[in-house]
Amino acid sequence: MTYFIDRRPNAKHKSAVNRQRFLERYRKHIKRSVEEAVNRRSITDMERGEKVSIPTKDISEPVFQHGPGGARNIVSPGNKEFLEGDKIRRPGGQGGGDGAGEGGASNQGEGDDEFAFTLSREEFLEFVFDGLELPNLQRKPLKSLEEIKMVRAGLARDGVPSRISITRSMREAYARRIAMRAPIKRALKEAQEALAAEERKDPVLRNPARIVELKAEIERLEKRIEAVPFIDTYDLRYHQLAAQPQPSSQAVMFCVMDVSGSMTQNHKDIAKRFFLLLYLFLEKHYEKVELVFVRHHTAAREVNEEEFFYSRETGGTIVSSALTLVNKIIEKRYPAGQWNLYIAQASDGDNWDDDSNICRDLLVKQLMPQLQYYAYVEITPHEHQSLWHEYETVAAQFPERFAMRQIVDAGDIYPVFRELFKRRLSQEQ
C-alpha cells in the first residue's frame, strides 16, 4: 500500500492544505478584494497582508437533502404544536430563514456578517501579481561556467555514501554470488551424487573410507558456499554527477525616472509608487533579474536604490541623457547576447525642444534592436507633448516590444502596471 505524507510546514492550529484549497476556490472574490486594496493603500505599504471579506452567500456549501417518498420516523422532543401530517408555515422575512444570510432588514431573527480572513504578505503579493510576467523573456547563451546544472553521469565504483545506487549495487552483488557459487555448487552436486551412489551399493561392496571422504568434501563445499559474502565492497556502485552548462535566462531591468523641475512632487510620488510596484514584482517572481536605477534631469546618473527613491535632486529636462547612459551601461556590463534587457521609464512628458528627436533616434537605432521590452509611462493629466508623439513613432516600428501608457492619478498605477506586464498569449502557448 502507498502512503502519501504531507510534510509542508503548518502554522499552529492551521492547515496549509485546506487554506490553499480555500484560496483557489474563491480566487475570483479574493482577487477583486485585493485589487480594491491596492488602489486604496500606498504601494509602500505592501509589506503587510490584507483583510479580505467574502459574502456569505458565495461560500455556501452543497448539502444532501431527503427527497420526496420513502418512510421516515422522526422523534422531535418537546413538540406541542404540530401533529403528523401538519404543514409547517414558511418563516417570514427575506432569505427564507429569519432574515439571516441575506443582510436585509428584518424585524426578527439575526443576520450574518460577511466572512472575513487575513491574507499573509506572500499570499497578498501572489494575488497582486497574478497573471503578470516579463514579456519576451528568452534563453540566452552561456554567460560563464557558473551557469551549470549537475546531472547524472553514469555509475562508478567509488563515491560518497549519499550517492550509492542500492539497486545497482544489489544487482552486482547477486551476479557476483551466482558467479562465485556456480563451480562450488557443481562440485557439491557431484559429491552428493557420488555419496548417494556409494550408499546404494551392497554393504559388502560399499567403501566406508570413500563415504567418509565424500561427506567431508560435501561439508567443506557447503562451508565455502556459506562463506561467499552477501555483498562486498567490490559490488558497490555510486551515482556520478557532472556539471552540464545551461542556457541562462538572466535579465536586467533599467528603471529610468525623470526628476526634473517640471515633475511636481505628486508626479514624483506616482513615479516612485510605480517603480516600487515593479521592484516588488521582480523581487517576488524572478531570481536572476538585476535592477539598474537611473535618474535624470539635464544630466543622467546611475544611483543606488535608496537614492533613486528618496533623493530630492532636480533640474531641467534632457531625456536623451538617460537613454545615452543606459546604452553605455549595456555595452559595458550587459551585452545583449547574454542578457534579456528591459527598460521602464517614467516621465511627465516634458523635454527640451530639440531633444525628443534625439530620443527617438537613440531608441530606433541603438536601444530597441537590443531590448526585449520597453515600457513608458507618462504621468500627466494634460495633453501629450513632443516626447509622447516621437515615442508613438517608435511604438509603430516595434509594436510587440514597445508599450506606452498614461497615468493621470494614483488610482491608475495598478491598472496601467497590469496592462504593461500582463502575460501574453503567445508566451502561454
TrEMBL record:
<protein>
    <recommendedName>
        <fullName>UPF0229 protein CK497_11490</fullName>
    </recommendedName>
</protein>
<comment type="similarity">
    <text>Belongs to the UPF0229 family.</text>
</comment>
<dbReference type="InterPro" id="IPR006698">
    <property type="entry name" value="UPF0229"/>
</dbReference>
<dbReference type="Pfam" id="PF04285">
    <property type="entry name" value="DUF444"/>
</dbReference>
<feature type="compositionally biased region" description="Gly residues">
    <location>
        <begin position="92"/>
        <end position="106"/>
    </location>
</feature>
<feature type="region of interest" description="Disordered">
    <location>
        <begin position="83"/>
        <end position="112"/>
    </location>
</feature>
<dbReference type="InterPro" id="IPR036465">
    <property type="entry name" value="vWFA_dom_sf"/>
</dbReference>
